[in-house]
Amino acid sequence: MATPLRVFILELTASAAALDPVADRITNKYGDRVVTDGIKFAPRITGSLRKSIKRQRKGLGSISITAGGPSSPHDVDYAAYVHDGTVRMAPNPFLRKAVNKNLPKYEKEMADVMALLHAGRPGRVGGSIGR
Asked: Across 3-7, 61-65, 68-72, which has the greatest mean pLDDT?
């Protein structure tokens, strides 16, 4: 007979296993949206800054979104200066704007998934949520 703590641990493990692929799908979906919006919000002079905005998968449910840097195809080493500004130039936080635009919907989808798991219906998690 399983103790209440053991049952809780098993349920938590099952919930985490059910959440992983859904959270990954939702995170990737909104990561792509942030990249698309970041490209729209970035200033366009040569187009190199916009082309340098990328999403990289870091692990299950984890991504990073970058602009510029030495790994960008056009060596856009000025992305941080444009985004954060300098003493002589006002900031243009194009990635922050993109994140802020998408964050409420992302949080709602993740909360919906968590609510389903909390309600004890992990089998429904892979359904329509996160697609």
From this structure: 61-65
